[in-house]
Amino acid sequence: MRSNMSLNMSKEKDQIANHADQHGFVMTGLQTIFLDHLAMFPMQEHMYQAILKVSLPPYAMNVYVSDRKNNPEQVYILGNSRFDLITLPHIQTRHVVSFVADIFRGLPHDPYTDTPLIHNVTVKIDCVVYFRHFDYSQAYPPYLTYVLYGAATEAHLSHYMTKDPDFQQVVDLAQPPTWLPPLQLESPAVINFPALPYTEKTPCENPFTVPEYEVLYAGQSSRYTVRIGTSYYFDTASLNQTDPCKKVVRI
Q1: What's the rounded Cα separation, in Å, for the pair 128 and 5?
Q2: pLDDT tens-digit profile of 48-63?
Q3: Which pTM was predicted?
Q4: CA distances from 187 to 73, 88, 113, 137, 205 (A)
Q5: What are 64's strand-pairing partners?
Q6: CA dist 181 to 14, 178, 193, Å?
Q7: Where are the domains of the chain?
């Protein structure tokens, strides 16, 4: 017979634990700030698609908005400090409602040595807009599918990621869709792009090539339109175990 200590150690070993870590987020919005989590399939701590609505202190908000208006094509990345580690489940359950972070213009090469735009800013989490752990038993959707979210005059798209291999993309819409009530925009909504079927080959670049697309709301039959704005972030390398878009150099 095993001792109680042995049984406890076995159970502990079998637990699926999320350890406190640093997390990166794509920032969207100028009036209302949202954080779109940078997911990673190979790491349990980062196997989440999560979107947060947050608030920054006035001084940080002023710096961020001013800088972003001067660099409208740039991606802005926010990451929690290595001295304030967090887990996403603790954010989802509201055990964590704020954290200290750095904000970078552009994707930092090394967050430890790169100079941030704003250092050690306190980020207040107003609400969790969208949250799910990836489920590898799910099939890819038949069409490219996105989470549509935003507030007031700003709307954004976050590609609905399924499993390895896949791609992560964050896009602004040119304007919020008139067919979606404001409360449902903040909820958010899931939309599908029938003109963009989900093939077995992972896209290696922005799949939006025209300004306007017809979409389905949550797979239903009625069709609506959205106008595409700026694509700030597109990635296959960090998300997947092996980059499906990496070019093989043959000698």
Answers
A1: 38
A2: 999 999 999 999 999 9
A3: 0.92
A4: 26, 19, 37, 26, 28
A5: none
A6: 45, 7, 20
A7: 18-235
